[in-house]
Amino acid sequence: MLRLTNLAKRFGDVVAVDGLSLDVRRGEVFGLLGPNGAGKSTTISMAMGLVHPDTGSVELEGLGAPTDAEVRRHLGLAPQTLALYDDLTAEENLAFFAKLYRLDRVRERVASVLELVGLSQRGKHRVKGFSGGMQRRLNLAVALIHDPPLLMLDEPTAGVDPQSRNNIIELVRSLASQGRTIVYTTHYMEEASKLCDRVGIIDHGKLLDVGTVSELVARHGGTTSVVIERLDVPEERITTTDPLKVIAQSLSNGDVAGLRVERPDLESVFLALTGRSLRD
Amino acid sequence: MLNAALTIALKDLKLLFRDRTSAFFTFGFPLALAVFFGMVFGGAGGDGGGSPVKLAIVHEGGAGSAGEIAKSFVADLDADEMIETVTAENRDAGEAMVREGNALACVIIPKDFDSGANSMFTGGGLSVEALVDPSRKAEAGLLTGKLNEIAFRQMSKVFGNPTRMKSMLDTSRAAILIAPNMSSADKQRFASFFDSAERLPSDDGAASEGDNGGGGGAMGNFSPARVTVTELKPKNKTGPTNSYSISFPQGVAWGLMGCVMSFAAGLAQERSRGTLLRLAVAPVTRRQVLLGKALGCFIACMMVILLLMIFGRLVLGVEIANPWLFLLATAIASFGFSGVMMFLAGVFRTEGGAEGAGRAIILILAMIGGGTIPLFFMPKFLLTASMISPFRWAIFAVEGAIWRGLTVTQLLPSFGALILFGVVGFAIGGYGFAKAQAR
Predict the structure, then answer these.
(1) Same domain as B338, residue B278
(2) Based on the domain organization, do B73 and B195 belong to the same domain?
(3) Chain A residue with Cα closest to B281
(4) Which of B253, B278, B302, B372 is deepest in the core (most CB within 10 A)?
């Protein structure tokens, strides 16, 4: 669906993206996971045709490069910044972009998208009165107004409360279930784990690895650990491929005050690939 | 292409009206200023300080045939630090200089100016006509006084010249002898006066300046100098011109400033808030986005000029001498200022830059262009500097159409300057925009 080949971009002395190649498959939710400043947004901007790469190319399957305005009709972008007109109502924001996309039956389309993001009741209210979560949902709605087959969601849950985050995650799931291809950037590994069919780990502009969460964990996450807590003794960590067996043995030995199993996750993958935590 | 541009323009206009502060400073504030200055100008005006006022001098008989007193009169005008004279070929040329704002007034010196000195005791006297710019009433008042003063100075010179004095007195004696409606006693009194005057010592103080005679009795015909002031009416115009005709074009400048600032800051806001990114993602070209922005500004500029003038026309009786020319001036000024907006938005790409440096630049241009201080109060160097201000050309174009009675040809310099500001602004702004987008 979307092919990025050997993309590179520098801003002065800063290397934002460094030889990144990637294939996003039709219908999948692809997560681009990396810390702030890793190059996720620049990659998205190049994929949208907004930033010209220094080297490399971007191609939408069967359509060409997104630098062509007509190719961009097939793309929807919810930028990290809330790109909305505060003094317009939600309906007016959506109608404005619908007209730019030369859509027919703008009113119906606006109503349908507002319904989709759960803002039907607030359509006639000005955006400046919306909560952060509502603005995020409207930001997503604008990206959906022309019903694009490929959606780019750049940190769509940045700065929202947990409840709104769950709403947005559910919304993305629902969009994915309709067969859309979604590229989802985030620095929250839980979101990537919950939503993404495949995840690419990006840091310092380089794509370090790509795969399903379980593939990445298997490749880089290391083994599972069982941590055993005993009275008056420091806790003991045992790495194992069979945690149940370790637990059974520990319990049979008695004097166990507590037990926990630590499974590798994307955080461990990131740590293994970059030598630092995702939250650093 | 136009559909997308129009959609963007209408959205921007909606945003302008939604932001009450911007809307007030674009529409309300200029109106308040125009009304305020109209009241001030309608009352007194200023003291006319600053640069010397320029007078167009027309010798009706041709400059070559000007008599000694006429030459002396012009030389004295020229010597006055408040006045700078320039010779105009004829009355029409002088009038045109006033209408085009190149001179405060046109002073017409009649063919028989010198011979008037010989008949000052018989209803003659030095006579000049001044055609003045009606927008500059305060200065015109000062000018009238100055012309009288200098005319009287010529009489003083006549009295100080025995030959000329004798010639004048002989002419007057002859005229009084045959005057049908004068009593013998009066004739006798004049004869005695002429005899006494002839015996006066020939020093410059023989006749005191400012003594305009005008007394009653036998001296009732003594009129050494007469200055007739005529306000130039706009061509093809029947209604009167009032002070609001002057202040409303100034208000237009403020309205244009509001539009330019709102739209330049709006474009910077679009950039910083990410909506420009959204526009860039949409299937519209960069040219369409820029056209939309410029079109919004153009429509707002047109609206502010038209609304101000319609208010002025309906409520305050401002006459619009040539409505079609006014519409043309409005459209060209709006184009010019859309270019100015593009320039500011292209050069100052952040909200802070547009609001700070952009506003400072536009405020200075408005001030030197006559938006705050009327041009005639400015010292000469500032008047010259005003050439670089689009406000000067816009004010002049609007004035030219509503009351100066100018033709399209006469307004070509103003139109040309505004179009040039527009084109250069679009070029620089477009380049800046493209450069920012390419990053």
Answers:
(1) yes
(2) yes
(3) A72
(4) B253
Judgement on whether residues B305 and B396 belong to the same structural domain of the protein: yes
CA–CA separation, B26 vs B252, rounded Å? 10
Q: A-chain residues within 8 Å CB-CB of B4?
A: 100
How far CA B47 is from CA of A121, B136, B138, B139, B293, in Å, comes to 63, 11, 7, 7, 43
* Residue numbers in A near B282 (CB within 8 A): 69, 72, 97, 100-101
Amino acid identity of B27? Answer: F
ipTM for the assembly: 0.81
Interface contact flag, B278 A77, Cβ < 8 Å: yes
The answer to whether residues B219 and B255 belong to one domain is no
User: What are the pLDDT tens digits along chain A (280 aa)?
Assistant: 899 999 999 988 888 999 999 999 998 999 988 888 888 889 988 988 888 899 999 998 888 888 888 888 889 999 888 899 999 999 999 999 999 999 989 999 999 999 999 899 999 999 999 988 899 999 999 999 999 999 999 888 888 888 888 888 988 999 899 889 999 988 888 888 888 999 999 988 999 999 998 888 888 877 888 888 887 788 888 888 888 888 888 888 777 888 888 888 888 888 888 877 765 5
B206: containing domain? 53-231
Strand partners, A9: A17
Q: With respect to residue B281, please indicate whether it lies within any of the assigned structural domains.
A: yes
Helices B323-347 + B244-273 axis angle, to 10: 30
In this structure, is residue B8 part of a structural domain? no
Produce one character per residue of B396-431: b if its CB has 16 or more CB atoms within 10 Å, e if not.
bbbbbbbbbbbeeeebeebbebbeebbeebbebbbe
Q: How many CB pairs under 8 A join A and B?
A: 67
The pTM of this model reads: 0.70
Closest-CA residue of chain B to A76: B281
Contact B384, B378 (CB under 8 A): no
Task: Report the chain B residue with the minimal C-alpha distance to residue A71.
Answer: B283
Chain B partners within 8 Å of A48 (Cβ): 281
Domain co-membership, B219 together with B251 = no
Name the residue facing B283 among A73, A92, A142 (closest C-beta): A73
Q: Answer yes or no: is B26 within a domain.
A: no
Whether B196 maps to a domain, the answer reads yes
Domain final residue pick, B198, B231, B264: B231
Q: Which residues of chain B does A92 touch, with a Cβ-Cβ cutoff of 8 Å?
A: 11, 14
